[in-house]
Amino acid sequence: MRSKLARGISVLTLGAVLSQAAPARADDWYGYQTLAADGAATGLLFGGIVTHKNVSKTFFALSAATYLVASPVIHGANEEPGRALGAFGLRIAAPASFGFLGLLIGAASDTRGNWGVPLAGAVIGFGLGVITAMAIDAAALARHDSPTAQGASALGLGRELYLPIGGSF
Fold this sequence. Notes:
- With about 170 residues, the chain is mainly α.
- It has one domain (about 25-145).
- The protein contains 5 helices and 2 strands.
- Strands 1-2 form a two-stranded antiparallel sheet.
- Strand 1 (about 155) and strand 2 (about 160) form a beta hairpin.
C-alpha cells in the first residue's frame, strides 16, 4: 500500500514539475522531437521495403505523410507557427530541388542517351534532399526564440556586484 502511495505521489510531483513552463532560453532545443518523428518515417519506409507488395503501399504513404506533416505539427505544438510553415516548405523544396539537380547531373554525365542514369541521379538527389531537410529542420529550425537578445548582459547591483560578460563563441 505504501509503495502505491509513494508511486502516486512521485508521479504527481513529477507531473507538477514537468507542467511548470520555464521561459524559453537561447539553448531551448526541441530537435530531438523532430528527429524522433523522422526516425518513425524512416522506419515506415523500411517497413514498406521489406513487406508484401499490397501492404508496402500503405507503409510508403504513411512514411511520406509522417515526413511531411509530423515536423510542422511538432513546431506548432511548441508554439512556433512560422517555423512550422518553414519546415513544411523545406521538406517539400529540398527533395524537389536536390532531385532536379541529380537529374541534371545524371543527364549531363550520361553518354548513352537512355533515362537510367538521369533517373538514378534524380532518386539519389531526392534522397539526399530528404536527409538534408531532416538535418536542417532538427539543427536550425527546432529552437525556441530567446526572450532576451543574444549576448545581452546587464550590470546588477545588490549585495554583491554582478558584471556578466557574455557572447557567442
